[in-house]
């Protein structure tokens, strides 16, 4: 039985289209438990509301359309991410655009993820489950990964300093996803060496990075996160999604991870089966639901 996290979450849903807001809201409320959704019609209204709320508790996530009147998603995103007191709020942009330059610009401005706006009820439910797992630190609601999902080409880098934890993760993930390629590094130096060697030898970089936050201290994990971000910026590479993983569900740990540009935060379950399925869902959604800029 999957354990559900009970902490209340608030989502700001920013979109000028009434029908789109309704469909997204209904899908999320059908998947995510104990959630409050605040509907907002444009970026200017979002900024006005943010000034009035208690940022210690509100919001947990912003879902925002790219194209809106008065102030676009890109404009409000830039303002939010340039404010140190607001950088901890994860922002997922949802839009119909397939313009690679706009998607790249949104990531450069600091969005946590870009999701193409759904066109069917099934896709809206898929979006809601992706949001639930990847950005609200909740465990999957159902053990229901479609059998057709193909993760055979996905390469994942796991940064974990505890050898026993790594062996357990490797065993369980390889058992459930036998064709996935897993690599482990143990600290900042070995991580940068691995990335440098892959780049130098023209080998594919990982498609997803899972970073343990306490390495062994939180500051160590955050330093590794910053070092990876700096590596990709310095070499002008497309950024790889980095998901921070931890046994801690403390709000300060979550906020600091997002403040330091983590794409997502995953709370490990004490139950092995739950954690295994959580990893599967996480990999599945970052592969199938979330759009990254294409290489040019």
From TrEMBL:
4-aspartylphosphate, modified sites: 65, 212
UniProt entry keywords in alphabetical sequence: Phosphoprotein
Matching PROSITE patterns: RESPONSE_REGULATORY
Signal peptide: none
Location of the Response regulatory domain: 10-132, 155-283
A Pfam family it matches: Response_reg
Keyword Thylakoid: no
Cross-referenced SUPFAM superfamilies: CheY-like
Protein name: Response regulator
Origin species: Dyadobacter subterraneus
